[in-house]
Structure formats: C-alpha cells, structure tokens
Amino acid sequence: MTRGKRVDAAGMQAFIDSLALPEAEKNRLKAMTPANYLGRATAMVDELK
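Structure tokens predicted for Adenylosuccinate lyase (49 residues):
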C-alpha cells in the first residue's frame, strides 16, 4: 500500500474506506490519531512491571 508513496491523512481515509468493514469500524479507525491511539504500548509497559 505505501511502498514508495507518501502516506497522508487523505490517503489513509481512502484506504480505510476501501476496506470491507462495517461503517462503525471505519469511523473508529478514521478517528484514530497518534495523539489518541497508544496501541499495545500500555500493555507492554504493564508487562515490564
């Protein structure tokens, strides 16, 4: 998808729109930003404790 291409918000939105997912899931994915999505970071930190 991204090899040799610049990834921007519009491109990610188009990619998400192309997925065979329910609209609710597409909206959830589109709402994610680096500021509000931590992925597995929280769980990984907990594993270190």
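The chain has one domain: 9-48.
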